[in-house]
């Protein structure tokens, strides 16, 4: 008796041909765009010691508390699948002494893991493209990140996006702001949801972006970080806004856009879309001048973002994905033809002609049917009669027009024929 067939774990999705091409294309556009903006690729480990994330994301945040895939490995060490990319990049940057290197701009793409409650559209293995600039404090680097984000999504043909920006202040101006916000929230406890009651004590900024109706009303007149920004934070924010204007990039100020962790400073931003139902973020990022120090490094300014690839793929029109080159299907009729055509198949593939060959034992009609189902543009047919005449038949699968080529110069003739199209 056979056993039950396996299926993928809940929250883990296979990308099959038809959909996977879109992802491959997003990745290739990412590589091209990020490279044009001077970013170098970095690939970090997917499994890290759990402490890296408790230290960087914070033991009190929902992500670490409930959502990481954390387990003891065979050596008894607590390890976690990365729930996001920044901590690993900073860890690698510190570990390999990149502080002394000339390259300060990095990008990555790959899977991240969060053990979220399964619900529509929430995957436990999801994918991000992220970029980090480590060691640059000037506002022009914030602008650079935002222009990169805008250009990348434009190259993918995604429209209808809104760039929202805000400033979160710094270690000088945030503590007094935090106190003012907590005072404001303490007078409205009755209106806050359960999560926000907890947040108002440990992480009051997060209350500002709670999506619940009651909380949104409660914080409508709450003090915002921008009102409490110190001179340096105010100047930085103005320079970022001016920089975006200089590049002709539209943005809107969202004084309630926040990040929950203390190492986030100054600029915070999101790229949002209304095309996915409720307003939702396609990309999010900001300046995190305090993170490198939190992970044991020297005080180092940094700014970064992460883009959700699942959302990009949803927002992209399938028409923008370039179609693969037309397929040439080679039809050998009999063993002699199969043997004779194998070198041509190899040579054409070496020249990047997309080729497939049929089963030499199959009939002409069956092979042509397979060529059709694969969407072949041309079929190349050779049987014993053609071998005897040193010829081959090239058939246009759409028009059914046929022409005769010489077997001895087959690969070259096909190349020049396809180039003429
Ligand atoms: Zn400040
Ligand atoms: Zn709330």
What does this structure look like?
The protein is elongated and about 95 Å long. The model has no long low-confidence stretch (mean pLDDT 93). The protein contains 15 helices and 16 strands. The chain has 421 residues and is of the alpha+beta class. A hairpin with a 5-residue loop joins strand 3 (70-72) and strand 4 (78-81). It starts with 19 loop residues before the first helix and ends with a helix. It has an eight-stranded mixed sheet with strand order 1-5-6-11-10-9-7-8, sandwiched between helices. The protein has a five-stranded mixed sheet with strand order 13-12-14-15-16, with helices on both faces. It has a three-stranded antiparallel sheet with strand order 2-4-3. It has helices at residues 20-36, 50-58, 62-67, 86-95, 139-155, 174-186, 194-202, 213-218, 231-246, 291-294, 309-315, 335-350, 364-373, 384-388, 410-419; strands spanning 40-41, 47-49, 70-72, 78-81, 105-113, 125-134, 161-167, 252-253, 265-273, 280-287, 302-308, 328-332, 355-357, 378-382, 391-396, 402-406. One zinc ion is lined by residues 192-193, 195-196, 210, 212, 215.
């Amino acid at each position: 008796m056979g056993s039950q067939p396996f299926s993928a774990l809940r929250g883990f999705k296979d990308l099959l041909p038809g959909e996977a091409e879109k992802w491959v294309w997003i990745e290739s556009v990412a590589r091209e765009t990020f490279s044009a903006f001077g970013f170098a690729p970095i690939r970090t480990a997917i499994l890290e010691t759990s402490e890296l994330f408790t230290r960087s994301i914070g033991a009190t945040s929902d992500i670490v508390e409930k959502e990481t895939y954390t387990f003891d490995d065979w050596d008894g060490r607590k390890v976690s699948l990365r729930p996001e990319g920044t901590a690993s990049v900073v860890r690698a940057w510190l570990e390999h002494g990149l502080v002394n290197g000339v390259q300060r701009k990095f990008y990555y793409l790959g899977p991240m893991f969060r053990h979220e409650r399964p619900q529509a559209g929430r995957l436990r293995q999801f994918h991000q493209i992220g970029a980090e600039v480590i060691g640059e404090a000037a506002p022009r680097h914030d602008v650079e990140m935002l222009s990169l984000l805008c250009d990348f999504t434009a190259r993918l043909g995604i429209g209808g996006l809104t760039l929202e920006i805000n400033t979160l202040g710094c270690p000088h101006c945030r503590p007094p702001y935090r106190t003012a916000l907590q005072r404001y929230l303490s007078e409205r406890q009755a209106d806050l949801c359960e999560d926000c009651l907890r947040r108002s004590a440990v992480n009051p900024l997060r209350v500002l972006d709670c999506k619940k109706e009651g909380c949104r009303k409660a914080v409508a007149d709450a003090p915002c970080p921008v009102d409490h920004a110190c001179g340096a934070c105010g100047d930085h924010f103005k320079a970022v806004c001016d920089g975006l204007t200089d590049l002709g990039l539209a943005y809107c100020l969202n004084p309630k856009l926040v990040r929950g962790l203390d190492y986030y400073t100054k600029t915070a931003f999101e790229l949002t879309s209304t095309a996915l139902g409720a307003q939702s973020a396609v990309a999010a990022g900001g300046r995190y001048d305090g993170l490198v120090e939190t992970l044991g490094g020297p005080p180092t300014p940094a700014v970064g973002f992460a883009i959700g690839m699942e959302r990009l793929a949803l927002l992209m029109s399938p028409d923008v994905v370039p179609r693969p080159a037309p397929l040439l299907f080679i039809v050998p009729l009999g063993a002699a033809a199969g043997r004779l055509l194998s070198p041509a198949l190899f040579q054409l593939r070496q020249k990047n002609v997309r080729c497939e060959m049929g089963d030499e034992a199959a009939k002409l009609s069956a092979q042509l049917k397979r060529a059709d189902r694969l969407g072949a543009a041309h079929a190349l047919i050779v049987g014993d009669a053609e071998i005897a005449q040193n010829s081959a038949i090239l058939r246009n699968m759409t028009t059914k027009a046929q022409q005769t080529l010489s077997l001895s110069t087959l690969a070259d003739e096909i190349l020049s024929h396809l180039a003429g199209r």
